[in-house]
Design brief:
The protein is α+β, with helices and mostly antiparallel strands. It folds into 3 domains: about 10-100, Acyl-CoA dehydrogenase/oxidase, N-terminal domain (Butyryl-Coa Dehydrogenase, subunit A, domain 1, Orthogonal Bundle); about 130-245, Butyryl-CoA Dehydrogenase, subunit A, domain 2 (Beta Barrel), CATH 2.40.110.10; about 255-400, Butyryl-CoA Dehydrogenase, subunit A, domain 3, CATH 1.20.140. It has helices at about 10-35, 40-55, 55-60, 70-75, 75-95, 105-110, 115-120, 245-255, 255-285, 290-325, 330-355, 370-375, 385-400, and strands at about 135, 150-155, 160-170, 175-185, 195-200, 205-210, 220-230. Bound molecules: flavin-adenine dinucleotide (FAD).
C-alpha cells in the first residue's frame, strides 16, 4: 500500500502557474464581476484558450471534458489542485468557464459512443470556444429528494415529450445542451427516471427566471421550462437499453463521486483566500502594536483554521486519488464535500471576526464580505451538508469494517 501526497513536478509547476494567474489576473477583477453579475465573454474566451494551452481540464471547463487534458494535469487530483487555485482567485469564474460543466459526467458515464462524439464534439471547435453544457436535475420540491422529480417524459413515435420545470441550473440559459432528468412514472421512483440531452432551441424548451443570488453572483443560475418539448429519441442518454435495469440512472449519479471532491476544493480555495487575508491582517496590525495575549489568541484561531483547511484538502485529494485508481469512493467523496464546505465556511466566518469591523466592509481591495457571501452555497449544492452526513452515516453503519 502506498500513501503518497507529494505532488509531481508537473503538478507543482501547474499549481504555481495557476496561482499566479489567480492572484494577479483573476482576483483584481473578482469584485467587479460580482457587481456586474457576469464575467465578460472576452475574458472567458482568453482564459479558456490559455487553459487549453496549459492542458488543464479544470481551467478549461470547470468540471471539464477535454481529451487527455486531465491526465496531463494529473487526473482527478490535478483537477482538484487547479480548482482550488482558481477559486482562490474567484470561485464564480470556475462555474462560468466554457465546457460541458456538470453536464459532462452523465454523458461520459451513460452516453453511447455516438452521443459522446456529438455532445462533446462541440467543445473541440476552437472557433466556438464559448459553449456550455448544463445539468438539470433540481426541481421546485425536488432538490435533496432526487427520487421525487416530477418532470414527465412519454414516448411518441421517434420523440420523447417532456413537461416540467427545472430550477437553479448553473449556466442553464447559455448552455448549448442540458442533461434533463425526467420520469416515466413518479410512482416508480428512481427506476422511472430517464436522462435526456436537450439542445438549446428545441421547441418547447425555454429559459425562465435568472436568479439573483447572494453569492457567486457572476455565475448564471437559471430556471428551465419544458412544455410539450419534443426531444429526438437519439437524445435519450445511453438509449432505451440503458434503463432496462436501474443501473443507467445510478451510473449517472455515481459520477458525482468524482465531482464532490472538486466542489470541496473549490470551497477550500475560498476558505484559504479568507484565511490568508486574515493572517496577513493579524500580522500587520497586531504583532507589535497590541498586547501579546490578544495576538496569541488570534494566532491560535488562525492555526486552527489552517489545520482544518489542510485536513479537508487531504481528504479531498484522497477521494480523488481513489477515483483515479477506480476504487469506489462514495463515502470519501461525501466526507470531503461535508468537511470542505464546513471548514471553508468556518474559515470565512473566522476571518471576518478576526478582522473586526474592517472584515465586514465592502471595498475594492477587501473581499472578505464577498467570500462570506460566496461560500455558503458550497454546503448546499451538489448535495447539502446534511445529505452528505446521511450518506456517510449510512455507509458507516452498513459496512462496520470501514472507518
Ligand atoms: C448556486 C446554485 C447552483 C446550482 N446548480 C445546480 C445545477 O446546475 N443543476 C441542478 O440540478 N441543481 C443545481 N442546484 C440545486 C442544488 O443542487 C439544490 O439546491 C440542492 O440539492 C438542495 O436542494 P433544495 O434547494 O431543494 O433544498 P432541500 O432539499 O429542500 O433542502 C432544504 C433543507 O432540508 C435539508 N434536508 C433535506 N432532506 C433532508 C433529510 N432527508 N434529512 C435531513 N435534512 C434534510 C437540507 O439539508 C436543507 O438544509 C444549484 C443550487 C444553487 C444554489
Amino acid at each position: 500500500m502506498t500513501i503518497e501526497f507529494t505532488l509531481t513536478k508537473r503538478q507543482l509547476e501547474m499549481k504555481g502557474a495557476i496561482h499566479g494567474v489567480a492572484e494577479n489576473v483573476i482576483r483584481p477583477q473578482s469584485l467587479a464581476w460580482d457587481r456586474a453579475g457576469a464575467v465578460p465573454d472576452e475574458f472567458l474566451r482568453n482564459f479558456a484558450r490559455m487553459a487549453s494551452a496549459m492542458g488543464s481540464s479544470a481551467m478549461r471547463s470547470g468540471l471539464g471534458e477535454e481529451k487527455g487534458s486531465a491526465e496531463k494535469m494529473g487526473g482527478n487530483v490535478g483537477t482538484l489542485i487547479a480548482s482550488e487555485e482558481i477559486s482562490f482567485g474567484d470561485a464564480a469564474l470556475l462555474l462560468c468557464l466554457p465546457g460541458p460543466g456538470l453536464g459532462g459526467p452523465p454523458v461520459r458515464a451513460t452516453g453511447t459512443a455516438e452521443q459522446k462524439e456529438r455532445f462533446f464534439g462541440i467543445f473541440q471547435d476552437v472557433d466556438a470556444i464559448l459553449r456550455w453544457g448544463a445539468y438539470g436535475l433540481t426541481e421546485p420540491g425536488a432538490g435533496s429528494d432526487v427520487a421525487g422529480i416530477r418532470t414527465s417524459c412519454r414516448k411518441e413515435g421517434k420523440h420523447w415529450v417532456l413537461n416540467g420545470r427545472k430550477c437553479y441550473i448553473t449556466n442553464g440559459a447559455r448552455a448549448a445542451w442540458t442533461v434533463i432528468f425526467a420520469t416515466i412514472d413518479p410512482g416508480l421512483g428512481r427506476a422511472g427516471h430517464r436522462a435526456f440531452v436537450v439542445e438549446k432551441g428545441t421547441p418547447g424548451f425555454a429559459v425562465g427566471r435568472i436568479e439573483e443570488k447572494m453569492g457567486l453572483r457572476a455565475s448564471e443560475t437559471a430556471e428551465l421550462v419544458l412544455e410539450d418539448c419534443r426531444v429526438p429519441e437519439e437524445n435519450l442518454l445511453g438509449g432505451e437499453e440503458a434503463y432496462v435495469t436501474k443501473e443507467g440512472f445510478m451510473t449517472a449519479m455515481k459520477t458525482f463521486d468524482n465531482t464532490r471532491p472538486i466542489v470541496a476544493t473549490m470551497a477550500i480555495g475560498i476558505g484559504r483566500a479568507a484565511y490568508e487575508y486574515a493572517r496577513a491582517f493579524v500580522k500587520e496590525n497586531y504583532v507589535l502594536s497590541r498586547p501579546i495575549p490578544r495576538y496569541a489568541a488570534l494566532a491560535e484561531r488562525l492555526a486552527r483554521t489552517g489545520r482544518n483547511l489542510h485536513a479537508a484538502r487531504m481528504m479531498s485529494w484522497r477521494a480523488a486519488e481513489m477515483a483515479d485508481r477506480g476504487i469506489p469512493n462514495a463515502k470519501e467523496a461525501s466526507m470531503s464535500k461535508a468537511m470542505g464546505g464546513q471548514a471553508a465556511i468556518r474559515a470565512c466566518i473566522e476571518a471576518i471576526e478576526i478582522c473586526g469591523a474592517e472584515g465586514s466592509i465592502a471595498k475594492d481591495h477587501q473581499l472578505l464580505e464577498k467570500w462570506f457571501r460566496d461560500i455558503k452555497v458550497y454546503d448546499i449544492f451538489e448535495g447539502t451538508g446534511q445529505i452528505q452526513r446521511i450518506v456517510i452515516s449510512k455507509r458507516l453503519m452498513t459496512d462496520l469494517k470501514s472507518f
